[in-house]
Amino acid sequence: MSMRTSGSARAGQYLALLCYLVFLALPFLWLLSTAFKPARELGSLHPTWIPRDPTLGNFRQAFDEQPLLRAAGNSLTAAVAAAVVAVLIATPMAYVMARRRGRLAAAATGWVVISQAFPFVLLIIPLFLVLKNLRLINSLTGLILVYAVWALPFALWMLSGYVRALPVELEEAAAVDGAGRLRTLVSVTGPLLAPGIVATALFAFVTAWNEFFFALVLLKSPEKQTLPVVLTHFLGAEGVADLGPLAAAAFLATLPSLVIFAVIQRRITGGMLAGAVKS
Q1: How many Å apart are CA 175 and CA 168, to the nearest integer?
Q2: Distance (Å, rounded) from C-alpha 24 to C-alpha 31?
Q3: Which of 26, 119, 245, 272 could be bridged to 61 by S-S, CB 3.0 to 4.6 A?
Q4: Which of 241, 234, 231 has its CA nearest to residue 211?
Q5: Quick one: residue 242, left, alpha or beta (phi over 0 = left, psi -120 to 50 = alpha)?
Q6: Cα dihedral sign for 179, 181, 186, 192?
Q7: pLDDT by residue (tens digit) across 173-200?
C-alpha cells in the first residue's frame, strides 16, 4: 500500500511539474511563432502554431522602426552595473548579518524582508526627488543606482543564507592563523560563496534587464531609453500593436536571459544548494 501511495505521489509531482513547464513554455513558443509569421498569417481567423510561410521580415522591420541595438546596449550597461554594485555591497553586509547575533541583526533582517513588500509607486516619488537633487534624472547612472538599491534587499537575504551554510570552523581556523575579518572574507569565505554570488548577481541582472517602470519615469531622452521602454513604441497611438515586429523585438529581448541561464545553470543550482544545505 505504501509503495502504491509513493508511486501515486511521485506521479502527481511529475504531472504538476509538466503542467508548470507547459504553463511557462506556451507563451514563449507562441511569441516565437508570431515573430516568424508574415502579416497575412497574423490576421488569419485560423491561427497555427507553426508558420506556414516563415519570414525574417518582422525582425528587419523591428530594427528599421526602433533603435533596438542602442536600447539593448543601455539595458545591458544598466543591468551589469547594477548587478555588480548590488553584489559588492551585499556580500560584506550579508556576512555581518549572518555572523552577528543580537537585536540589531534581527532588526536588519526583518527590515530586509519588509522592504521587499514596498510597491514601485510608493518609492518612485522619493527616488525621483533624491535623483533630481543629485542631478541624475535622465541618466543611466541614476537608473543604475535605483536598480542596485532595488536588488539589494533580496541580494542580502540570499547571500546571508549562503554565509550561514558555511562552516564557522573555517573562519575560526583563519583567525587562529592571524587573519582579520576582511582577510577572512576575501580569502576564505569569498571563494566558498562564489556559487551564491553568481546566483545573486544573475537575479539582479535579470531583474534590471526586464525592469520597465523606473526606466520609463527616470529616462526621458530617446537615446538613453532601455529595451523594455523601446518595446512600447511598437504600440500605435490608439494602443494597436504592430504585432509581428513587436513579437520579433520581444523575442530578441528575452534571449540574453535565456542564454545566461543555459550557460551557468549548473552554477546557479550549486549556489542554491549551498544556501539551503549546511555542510
Answers
A1: 11
A2: 12
A3: 245
A4: 231
A5: beta
A6: positive
A7: 877 777 777 777 777 777 888 888 888 8
